[in-house]
Amino acid sequence: MMRNSADYAFFINTAQEFDGSNSGAYPDETVSWGKIRGLAKTVKVQPLNQNPSQANEKVAPLVQNLDLVLKGTTYLLSQKWVGVNSVLHLMSLAIHSVLPLKWEAYWASDV
Hints:
GO terms for molecular function: deoxyhypusine synthase activity. It is built from three helices and four strands, in the order βαβαβαβ. It is α+β, with helices and mostly antiparallel strands. Strand 1 (about 5-15), helix 1 (about 25-35) and strand 2 (about 35-45) form a beta-alpha-beta unit.
């Protein structure tokens, strides 16, 4: 258990629910470990599939590239002093700077 749990959490999941690979530590699990506070604001970001019939054409390359850069399928990053909107913006800039592709489609929602 951490003594000073984080107030904010940013959760990136590059797995896809339709193929069964969507696993890992979700924010509510990390609360039980003491990594983030129970009242912490969490945001989950996943690739958006605009056309389900073309999932492998548009979403799979994005997922594969994210996996290469992030070296895994699920990450939880937390910062105590930055609001959720700022974390989203900072992570977006960081991802844009390392990926050779643009984030054409993504969605964020409250978890």
